[in-house]
Structures are given as C-alpha cells and as structure tokens.
Amino acid sequence: MNKVLKAVWNPRASVAIAVTVIGISVGIAITPAFSRPADVTSDAALLDGFRHVEVASVSDAMEKVAGQRIYLSHRMRPIFTSKFAGFALTVRLKKEENQDPHALDGMLAAIDQGGPNSVYVMSVEDGADIAGMGGLMGTAMQARNFSGAVIDGGVRDTAYLTKIGFPVFSLGNVPSTSVGHYRFAGSNIPITCDGVPVSAGDIVVADSDGIVIVPRARASEVLAMAQDMDFKEHSMYAYIEKLKSIEEAVKKFGRL
Fold first, then answer.
1. Total number of domains in the chain
2. Do strands 77-78 and 118-124 pair parallel, antiparallel, or not at all (unpaired)?
3. Which of 11, 185, 236, 198 shows the shortest CA–CA distance to 88?
4. What is the DSSP string of 46-108?
5. Longest dimension (CA), the chain
6. Do 75 and 22 fall within a single domain?
7. Residues 127 and 12 in one domain
8. Which are the contacts of 239, defined by CB distance < 8 A and separation ≥ 6?
9. Per-residue pLDDT tens for 16-69?
10. 44 in a domain, yes or no?
11. Does residue 113 form part of some domain?
C-alpha cells in the first residue's frame, strides 16, 4: 500500500519529515528562516571582528571607505588600558541648576534598559569638570554586561572602577557630581561626543590608541577594510626586520 505522511510546519524548530512513497523512504530536513537570529549572529560576528582589529586600522578604514575622520580626540583617555567594542547607547545631560530629585532618573533608566554589548556614550554639557558617572553606575553597567563607557565629561570613583575592571574613557578624573546641576535630556538619541556625532546603535571601538565611532550602516564595509589593513601591517613587521627597510615593505604591501 502506498503511504504519504503529511508534513506539518513547525515554526519553532527545524523539522525532519519522513515521506514513504511506493515503498521508498525519503528524509527531508526543513530549516525555517528567521531574520532575528540571523541578525543576532551577524551582530555578534561583527563585534567579534572589531574586537580583534586595531582602532588605528578602523580609523584609517573609516577615512577610506566613508571619507570621514570619526575618531574622538586625544582628550578622551581611559582610566586603565582597555580594549572593547559594542553598540552605542547614547545619553545626553544638559546643564541646569535644580532641586528636582528626579532630574537624572532617565540617565539611570537608560542603564537598566541596556545589556550585553552596550557601550554607554554620554554627552555632559560643559562637563569637563563634572563626573558623568562613577562607581555605582559602573557597577550597574558591569552587572548588565556592558562593553564599556565613553563619557564626554569627567569620571569619578576610578579606583573602584579599576578594581572591578570596568573600562571607561573620559575627559579626566574629577570628584564632582552632576546631581543638582544637570538634567537628563534624552537617551538613544543622536548626540555629539567630543565633537563626533554618535547615534544609538553605532559601533564604538576603543583601545589604547583612542576611540572610533563606526556608523552601523557602514560597519561591515569598514570592518573588512580594517581587517585587510591589519593583516598587511602585521605582515610588514617581519618583512621590515628582515630587509631592514621600511621603504621596501611599504612598496610591497602598500600600507603605512
């Protein structure tokens, strides 16, 4: 007797279907396509790539691919030597003397809405001598597996932040507070950080050379170029040592 087993679509998992037709068994594996897991995998691979290239190469790649120099200035320094990459979670504080106990609530809510691979990017208006964050906020970010923080303003509690190993770049160490002097002005909005435009979801890449902001739409292209530049540069070291000539190395690899 000929038998036909009907396939039932299961949207939650891959389904193996056995079909018997005229005594012949055929196994068919159906794997449903989902856009979200593909996106997550893509994002994870993208960040992994950026974590393994030098920020200097990313900066050069941005200039070649996008014709833009989108790196933060020498004023932005790490509290300890660190390297990270993640997606920008932007926050803006505006100067405003106040007695409002809730003036900065949004700043804290933004942290609790972030998660793994977030980079807290904060703009503090005229904030070079104001601590935009300290140990409490850093502890919350660490607990939520943020990649790091970039503060266009000051930072405090640096000994504790160093102890827990949470990486922060800022304009410098200051003991002051923003409480009573600033008001939350928005999160996950376009901001300017140390003169550089940053949008929520942009990729922030940081190491001991500094910080580069990569617009999300150009990230794959920029990463490919940066990886190529890194490969050439790292190959050049041994070549220079062997020939004792940087001119010959540049001529061969076309990278400086």
1. 2
2. unpaired
3. 198
4. HHHHHHTS-HHHHHHHHHHHHS---B--TT-EESS---EEEEEEEEEEEE-----TTTTHHHH
5. 86
6. no
7. no
8. 248, 249, 252, 253
9. 333 333 343 443 333 333 223 334 348 999 999 999 999 999 999 999 998 888
10. no
11. yes
* Structural domain range at position 25: 1-31
Q: Any idea what the CATH number is for the domain that residue 191 is in? A: 3.50.30.40
Q: What is the pLDDT of residues 179-206, one digit of tens each?
A: 999 999 999 999 999 999 999 999 999 9
In this predicted structure, the answer to whether residue 255 has a pLDDT above a threshold of 70 is no
pLDDT band at 254; cut points 50, 70, 90: low
**199 inside domain:** yes
Mean pLDDT across 214-223: 94
pLDDT category at 92 given cuts 50, 70, 90 is very high
Q: How far apart are CA 166 and CA 120, in angstroms?
A: 12
* H or E element in which residue 239 lies: helix 219-243
Whether residues 16 and 59 fall in one domain: no
Going by their DSSP bridges, the two strands 168-173 and 77-78 should be labelled as: antiparallel
pTM of the model: 0.80
